[in-house]
Amino acid sequence: MPVRFFDATVSTFDGVFEKFRSEASQNKANLILFLADKDPATSLSWCPDCVRAEPVIYKKLESSPDDIALLRAYVGDRPTWRNPQHPWRVEPKFKLTGVPTLIRWENDAVKGRLEDHEAHIEKKIEDLIALT
Known about the structure:
This protein is an alpha/beta fold.
């Protein structure tokens, strides 16, 4: 299976991220997708941009012949995400400003990223995956 998924919340991120990092050398691409949590009432993300981007991203990843790891990091509910002190907003490695954000992780650093307003554009997703 070319795409390997890892899922994390704010509280489980450190452990999942360590596992993701430890296996990074086995993959052609390592990506982190920061997403809004799903609304329990609708089973959809509370973030309309996430609802729009997720299926496009998954389609692009699953059509790739390469081994890809995708860490889906869920930022929490809307009030949690809106907090200016959210851990991933203030984390120097990520500096998130919006969701969804798709990051190419390479050599223990951010190699490229797509912000919320562009994370659904197929060509940009392809280019991010293909970065060398």
